[in-house]
Automatic annotation (TrEMBL):
Transmembrane segments: none annotated. GO terms for biological process: rejection of self pollen. It comes from Solanum pinnatisectum. GO terms for cellular component: extracellular region. This is S-protein homolog.
Amino acid sequence: MVHLLVKILLLLLIMPYNIQSYDCQVPFLPKYSIHVLNNLSPDSMDSLEIHCASGDDDLGHKILKVGEDFRWGFCAWTWTLYFCHFWWGNKNLMFDVFNDQHYCVHDGVNIVPKDTTECIWQVKYDGIYLGYFDGDKINSQKYRGW
C-alpha cells in the first residue's frame, strides 16, 4: 500500500497541473469543464475569435461560428487558472474563465451555485455572460460588457 502511494505521489509531481481531458486520471482531484458558446446574432458581420490558455496548456486560437461551443475539461488543483482573450470586431476582452473550484471564478459567487463544475461562458452582442447548466437549460448573468 505504501509503495502504491509513493508511485501516485511521484506521478503527481511530474504531471502538469492541468490535464486537458474529460477523463481526469487522478481519482481524488475534482473534474471541471469550461464551455465558451458563441451566442452572437446569426447576422453578425464579424467573427468571434478566442484564445484560451493556462500556465501549462495553450488551447490555441479559435474562430467560433454562431452556435458553436468550444469546451475543454481538466482536473483542478486549488491554484488552477485558465484565461481567455475574446475578440469580436473592434471589441476585445481578456479575463480568467476559471480560478475558483467553487464558483468558476472568484467573483462568480453571486452568479453560479457553489461547487459548480461546468462553467458556461456565453458571448453575446452586449458582453460575456457566466452561467451554469440547470437541468436542460443554461442560467446565466452578464459578467463583462464589451
